[in-house]
């Protein structure tokens, strides 16, 4: 009997170890509904999850699986995307509307299965339909499976979510601009964890405060959920050390400030090593274009624990100016993967598919000058390789799995249709071609994609995000990409592994990835005004032909499409 009990105990222990290796199963309920919030001296109703802004935090260990049931109690359809989660073989739950699903109708619910794999650090979730993500977003925290960090474990941690605040109804702002073809109105403020901070009217008493213990180190998990502005962030009289971005570790970067673009996340260590007092943390915008932007500064308070009273004047951090391109570039080019034995990387070397993708702000022709977006009666637009992407009325994933090509084609050009001096004097049309053309890749292809900024329309930075993958940022530079000489300067040793990059104004960025995740995946600019203008494309990765390399089967229920 004793031998039998020992045997059963051994088997049970093995079962527990197997379960841990496979990851835990977790469940969340998200109730999407209108809630009242008061900011900037006025109250408005806005769409939220679980009555919170920002929304609830998802906490998992590396390799876990999460089931999130979205209860849509709002008045219109919505989708949710799990930004930076690669979702192996499971595009069905990725979330972008009309790419992998149709919106969840009002008064219905939909359960999404979120599959974590190699991600470790800070990611986030957000609505991926119209402009709902302005208020529908939250953090995803992926802890190491064995509670082992590549740096001393911090004493405490705090999520910092940067977001936009509109006094007006965000959907009205969106619908007005889409209807007219004009520029979108800018926000009225930025927020840190839902609060604008003491520099705004009616806001000083609600400023977010982070209590810290003198001498201890804290991990700040910073997310830029702002719609259309890149941001500088810093803490008065405190140094920052970046140790991760987009769910992967980096070599430590010591800095007075960070620069974070919409869609990005950063893990930042700060040590409370100053005299016990109050210190402002602040975020202010960076903009190098002619487009209007919200030139405001949001603040929160780093408050040392103790009996001290607030000083008569709380110091602010010294952040770069709104158009300080040098400061932005000096920070963004410092990133390197940790590339250690415990956190190895695998940079693709033998490229089988080259893509050169011009990124432009354009105009869209309106017959009979019927739009009011420009003085000539056209509408503002954007494009990749002069293709301005138009969403179909049934999601591409559903159509593709049915072998139905009625609403999209697979002939997206893999290089600009016209070769010109991209960053010089423009001698090509500013008008883009509209359509729903996608990129189709064979499973296992090794891809190098070079984003090329252009001087067409309003030249500016672009935060480019790819669903379904992390990728290696192997090179970046200013001017036109030279495929003969620029690859000689690639970093193939320890490039950062990310899911969102900053394409510099009139510059280029080269990324590499292996197309080993079958499905339909969205690639788009994370400036929220540029995606509806057409700065996007879908990428189809074909099945690999085996159970482990094919897409998972379609779930029994998917939200219905208006045209299905």
From TrEMBL:
This is Laccase. Its EC number is 1.10.3.2. It comes from the Eukaryota. It comes from Dipteronia sinensis. Residues 1-23 form the signal peptide. It catalyses: 4 hydroquinone + O2 = 4 benzosemiquinone + 2 H2O. Residues 32-146, 157-306, 412-543 form the Plastocyanin-like domain. The keyword Secreted applies. Binds 4 Cu cations per monomer. The lineage of its organism: Eukaryota, Viridiplantae, Streptophyta, Embryophyta, Tracheophyta. Coiled coil: none annotated. Transmembrane segments: none annotated. Belongs to the multicopper oxidase family. Lignin degradation and detoxification of lignin-derived products. SUPFAM superfamilies: Cupredoxins. One of its GO terms (molecular function) is hydroquinone:oxygen oxidoreductase activity. Its cofactor is Cu cation. Keywords: Apoplast, Copper, Glycoprotein, Lignin degradation, Metal-binding, Oxidoreductase, Repeat, Secreted, Signal. It holds the Pfam family Cu-oxidase_2. GO terms for biological process: lignin catabolic process.
